[in-house]
Amino acid sequence: MKIAVCIKRVPDMDVRFRIAADGTSLDETGIKFDLNDFDAWAVEAALQLKEKAGSGEVVVLSLGPTAVQETLRKALSMGADKAIHLQADKIPFDGFAIASAIAAELKDGAYDLILFGKLSPDSSNGVTGAIVAELLDLPCVTAISKLDVADGRGTAKRELEGAQEIVEFPLPAVLTIDEGLNTARYPSLKGIMAAKKKPLESKPAALGDASVNVSQLEMPPERAAGRIVGEGAGAVPELIRLLQTEAKVL
Amino acid sequence: MANIFAFAESRSGELRKVALENVTAARNLADATGGQVHALLVGAPGIAAKAAQLGAHGADVVMVCEHDAFTQYNPEATAALAADRIKAGGFRAALFNTSAQGRDLAPRVAAKLRIGLVTDVTSVELTGDALTAKHPINIGKVIATVTIAGTPAIVSLRPNTYAPVPNAKAGTIEMVAPIGDPSASRVVVKELVTGSTGKLDLAEAPVIVAGGRGLKAAENFKLVEDLADAFGNAAVGATRAVTDDGWRPHADQIGQTGRLVSPDLYVAVGISGAVQHLAGMRTSKTIVAINKDKEAPIFKVADYGIVGDVFEVMPALTAAVREARKGH
Amino acid sequence: MASGQALRVVPSEHQPPLPAELILREPLDAEAVPMDVVFVGGGPAGLAGAIELSRLINKDTEDGGTLGETQIAVLEKSSALGEHSLSGAVVNPRAFRELFPDLTDSDFPFRGPVTNERVYFMTEGRAIRIPTPPTMQNHGHFIGSLSEMVRWLGEKAEGMGVNVFTGFPVASLVMDGEQVIGVRTTPSGLGRDGKPGSGFTPPTDISARVTVLSEGTRGALAQAYMNEADITSENPQIFALGVKEIWETKKPLDAIVHTLGWPVPNDGFGGTFMYPLTPNLVAVGIVVGMDYRQTTLDVHELLQKLKTKSPFRDYLEGGEMIEWGAKTIPEGGYFGLPKRRHGEGVMIVGDSAGFVEVASLKGIHYAMQSGMFAARAIFDALKKDDVCANTMARYDALVNASYIVSDLKERRNMRLAFQNAGLYRGGIKATLMTLTKGAFPGGKIDSESDAEVSRLVTPDQPFTPDGKLTFSKLDANFKSGNATRDTIPSHLVIGKDITPEVAKLYAHMCPAGVYELGDNGRLIVNQANCIDCKATDVIGPRWTPREGESGPKYRLM
Asked: Are B63 and B40 in contact (CB under 8 A)?
C-alpha cells in the first residue's frame, strides 16, 4: 500500500489576527503554526492503513515556504516514511493553482491512495483534494468520517446534514478526511529522533494559473449593542414580537 | 447581460432549502445585468415535478436530468453534467452551495473547467468585468474579499446567507441528457442513512438553543430541549462548563475547544458568556439571551435579552413559540 | 466553634503529601530512549545548560576529544518553547553575555534597555512618586519577554544539536538506589476515567547518565528528589504569586514603573510593575507573597483593581489586553536554598533550586548561570566518565563561589523581614539590611512555609469586571491561550476536610479559575483551566505533571 498524504502548515487560530500592510495578507508576527488538524487525521489514517496492510510507504507532501519542512518533519515523526516539499514563497489562494502543482508531483507516483484533510481553517476553501482527483482522473470521496479498505476497494461514510452516505469506490482513489475518522497520534520521542534521519526532498512547485485572488482583507464588524427586552416571563410576548417582526426568525 | 447558472441541490427526490437560496442569489446577480437564471436539477425520474419551485423563486429555465442512477447523489455524473452545461451555456457565473453535497460537487466542476473557485461565500457581487465575493477565513476572524477573473466564475454560497425569496419566473423545463452513462460512475453512494440520530446537526441547524450552568442541574436541560422542540428546527448546544460536568456530551459543546456555529437564531439559556463561548457563537445572526444576572457578558452580544429566572421564563417562552409556530 | 473566636484556615492541614509516583524505583523500560544528559524543563536554566554543555562538547570534539556522540535532551511540557515561561521581565544580561561571548547585547532577544524608571507608593486614593530604592535600580538592564528569550535560546540549542522535545512532561524520576538513572514521561490520550482513550500514547522512559532538574518554580520532581534524598534548607522555601497581563496601549509608556503599597494589604508582601516592551506594548503585573493572611485575598482581582487607578489606568484605558498569565516565584532567598543541589546523577538548577533574589526581583540570569555551571560540572564528569555525587558536587561548588550565592546572601533576610512584620516595619528593617549589606540584623529570621501560615476567614471583596479594563478569571484564562483538552484525568490531588472556607481560599488563591465553591458548599475543580502557575501546589491541592501540550500558550510573557 503506497499512500500520499498532502498536508498544510496552518496558523494557530486561537489568536487575534492582524492584517498586514499590503491589505491582502495577514501579519504573521508572533503567530504559531502547526499541522492542520484535518491533515493530521489524514496522516493518522494513512499510518493505520499501512500498519494494517503490514507493509507499504506513506509519503507526506506539503506546498509552501521553507517553514513547511517543520510540518513535514512532524508528519515524519508521527511515522510517515518520506517527505516532499514543493517550494512556493506564498501559498496561492486559488485551489486550482495549488492542486495543479500537487497533481503534477503525484501523477507518476503509483499511489494506491492520496489523502487530504477536508479543509484548512485558514483559507477555508476545502477544494484541493477534489481538484487533484479530477486532474489525475481518480475516483474521489470527500469529507469521510469512516473508512474500510480491502481487496482494492473502499467503503467510506460521509456526514450530511441530518443524514449519512455510505459510499463505495475502487482504488486508486483520492480521499479527504473529516473529523471523527480517528484521533491523531502524538509524535513519540523515538519518532522524533527517527524523523531527523528520514528523507525530505525539496523542489520547486509547478503552480497552475491562479484566477481567484484575495483583493482585500478586513475584520468582521463588531456586533451592535443589544437591548434588554424586559424582565421575567412578562417580557416573553415582546420578545416573540421582535423575533417575528424585527429579526424575522420566527 | 449576464446569465447565471444555479445548481439546485436535492436529496431523495426533494429539493433542499439551499436550492432555493441558490436560485434567489442567482436571481439577484442576473437582475443586476438583465440576465437570466438557469437552474440545473438532477434526480431520479419524477424530479422534474420540483422544477416549479425553482421557477417560483426566480429560475427562468430549469434544466432537468432524470435517471435512475441519480436516485442518490452521483458525484461523478453530476459534476460531468454540470460542467458540460456551464460550458455550453456561456454563463457568467455558476452558483453552488457550501453544503455537504455542494462542497463535494463544486470543486469537481471547477476542475473539469480547469479554473479555480471560491467556497463558503457570504455575499457575491458582479461589478463590471469582475466578480467579487466575501469569504470568511481563519474561522471567521477575518473576511476576505475574493476576486475571480475570467468566465465562468464558480462560487459556492454558505447556507443560510441568502434567504429564499419568492420571485415567479417562467421556470421553463428543459430536459437534458446525462453525459455518458451515469450508472458507470466509479464512486457510488450505496446507501443514504437518515434519521439515525434524530437530531439536527449544530453546524446546520437554523436555530440553536444552548444551555449553561445557570440551569443548575442536568435534568433541567429538559427546558432547553422543550424550547428546541417548540421551534421544530432547532439543535441543542451547551457550554464547556456544562459538558465538563457531564450534563451533556462533549459533541454538544459550543466554543473555543468545541464547535463554531452561526445559526439564524441562537438562544442562550443560563449562559453567562465566557469569552470561549462567545467566540463560538458570536457570528449567529440573531442572539437571544436569558439570564438572571443583568451584568452577564452574554447581554453584550445579545440582540435581545430577558433578565430573569430561566425556570420562570423558559416555560413561558416555549409555550409562546409553540403558539407562534402553529400551522408550520 | 466558640463564639467570638475568629474562624481560621491553615492550608497545610488540608494539603495532601507529595504523590509517591514522582519517584520510581524500578528498572527503566527495555526500550528506553538512551540519552546521556537530560534537562527536565526547557526554560532559561535548562536551555542555557544544554547550550553550554553542547558547546563544551563540540569544542572538545574539535580538539580531538571523544565525547562527540553525547546525546543531550531537553524535555519541555508545553507544546512549544516559551509557552509556559513567564517573568516580568527586566533582565540582567550578564549570563547572556557569558553564554554567548561572540554576540553583543543587540543580538540578544531583548526588547530594549531600561532608560527611565519610576517608583510609586500607592494608597487606594493616590500614587506618590518616591525615590528608587537602591535594590530596585535597573540601569544597564534590559526589558524583555521571557517567552521570547526562551524561544530564542531554544533555536540556539537546536542549532547546536541539542534534542529539544516539546510536549513531553516528565512524570517521574527513575532511581536505582541513590542513583538517578533516567525519567519517565507522562502518558497522553487518557480519558477522564484514567483509562487509555483513542490516541493513547504510553509513557516513554529515557535513560540518562545525568538528569538536570530545570523544571522552574515549585518543581514537582525537584521537591520529590529533595524529600527522597533528605535535602533540607535553613528555612522552608516560600513563594509569591505573580499575575501579569500584556496590553496594547493607546498611550506610550516611556519608563519601567514599580509600585509598593496598595492594593497589597499592609500585612502582606508584594508590589506591582509596568514595563514597556515597546512604547505601546506594555506588561503590567502584581506579585504577592503567598504567606498572605486572608482567605479571600485574590491576586488576580488585586491586579484588576490596580489597573483602575493612576498611573496604570492612564496608560491602559482604551487599550486592549492581549495576553494574560500567572506564575509563582520562589522567594525564600539564601535561607530557602537547598543545602545541596546535586546527588548521584542529578542536579537541580534555576527556580527549582530557588535561585531568585527578591529585593531586585531577578531570577533569569541566576537560572541561566546555574544551568551553565551544571553544564561545566557535567562536562568534567563525562570527561572522567564518572557521574557519582562527588563529581556532581563541583556544580554546587561553582554556584557557591559565584555571584548567585553572594547576591542572595547579601539580601538574605530582606524578604523574611516582611513575613511577620508587614509593610511598614518590614520596610524599615529591609532598608537597614540594604544599608548594612545584609549584616543587620545578623543571624537569620526564621520562617514557616506558606502552607503553614494561618489565614483569617474573611468576606469576599466585591469585584465586577467590566470586560474592558478589568477581567474575570475565565476571560483572563482565555487570553492565556489555554486550550487544554478537557477530557483528561484531573492532575490536581485534593486533600481532606475541604470545608466551604477552604474551598473559598482555593477559589481566590487560584488566578485561573480552577477552583470554585459550588452552591452545595462543595469544591468544584475545573482542572482544564490550570495554567501551571503552581500556586495550588504551594498552599492547596497538589499539582502533578499531566498530558503534554496542556496548559497556557504564552507568546509575550
From this structure: yes
Q: At what angle do helices A37-53 and A68-78 cross, to 10 degrees?
A: 40
Q: Which residue has the cell 476567614?
A: C457
State the Cα angle at C226 between C222 and C227, rounded to 5°. Answer: 120
> How far off is chain B from A47, nearest CA to CA, in Å?
24
CA-CA distance, C392 to C179, in Å (whole number)? Answer: 12
Cβ–Cβ gap C526/B244 under 8 Å? yes
Set of cell numbers at residue B191: 446507501
Neighbours of chain B (3+ CB pairs under 8 A): A, C
Closest CB to A186: pick one of C201, C206, C555: C201
Q: How far apart are CA A216 and CA A25, in angstroms?
A: 8
**Three-class secondary structure of residue C199 per DSSP:** strand
Helix (H) or strand (E) holding B321: helix B310-324
Contacts 24+ apart (CB under 8 A), B49-55: B50/B8, B50/B10, B50/B13, B50/B14, B50/B15, B51/B171, B51/B173, B52/B171, B53/B15, B53/B19, B53/B20, B54/B6, B54/B8, B54/B15, B54/B19, B54/B20, B54/B23, B54/B171, B55/B168, B55/B169, B55/B170, B55/B171, B55/B172
Instruction: Confirm whether pTM is higher than 0.90.
Output: no
What is the C-alpha separation between C118 and C114, in angstroms, rounded? Answer: 11
Question: Cβ distance B144 to B136 under 8 Å?
Answer: yes
For C203-257, write each residue's pLDDT tens digit.
999 999 999 999 999 999 999 999 999 999 999 999 999 999 999 999 999 999 9
Reported as a single tens digit per residue, the pLDDT across A30-45 is 788 999 999 999 999 9
Phi, psi angles (nearest 5°) of residue C354:
90, 25
Alpha carbon of C16: minimum distance to chain A alpha carbons (Å): 32
CA nearest to B283, candidates B309, B311, B264, B307 = B264
Nearest to B118 among A125, A143, A240 (CB): A125
Q: What pLDDT sits at residue C435?
A: 65
Residue B30 φ then ψ, to 5°: -65, -40
Q: Is C206 on the interface with A (CB under 8 A)?
A: yes
Question: What residues contact A248, with CB distance under 8 A and at least 6 apart?
Answer: none
Is the minimum CB–CB distance between B301 and chain C shorter than 8 Å? no
Mean pLDDT (whole number) for C5-24: 94
Rounded to whole angstroms, how far apart are CA atoms B299 and B54? 40
Subunits that touch chain A (at least 3 Cβ pairs < 8 angstroms)? B, C
Of C286, C250, C240, nearest to C122 by C-alpha is: C286
3-class state of residue B192 by DSSP:
strand
Q: For residue C198, list chain A residues with Cβ-Cβ distance below 8 A.
A: 182-183
The burial of A29, by beta-carbon neighbours within 10 Å (0-12 exposed, 13-18 middle, 19 or more buried), is given as exposed
Q: Which residues of chain B neighbour C487 with C-beta distances below 8 Å?
A: 250
How far is Cα C321 from Cα B187, in angstroms, rounded to an integer?
52
Residue B199: how many other CB atoms lie within 10 Å: 14
The distance of Cα C25 from the centroid of its chain, to the nearest Å, equals 28
Q: How far apart are CA C489 and CA C66, in angstroms?
A: 45
Query: What's the longest Cα–Cα distance across chain B?
Result: 64
Task: List residues of A whose CB lies inside 8 A of any C CB.
Answer: 12, 14-16, 30, 32, 182-190, 192-193
Cell numbers at residue C132, please? 528608587
Angstrom distances, CA of residue A28 to CA of A12, A15, A19, C108, C488: 11, 11, 9, 21, 32
A164 CB-near residues (< 8 Å, 6+ apart):
A157, A158, B192, B193, B196
HSE-CB at C378 with a 13 A cutoff on CA atoms is 34
In this prediction, residue C441 carries a pLDDT of 66
CA distances from B307 to A242, B216, B242, B289 (A): 16, 17, 21, 8
Partners of C142 in the β-ladder: C91, C113
Average pLDDT over residues C371-389: 94
Contact C555 A182 (CB under 8 A): no
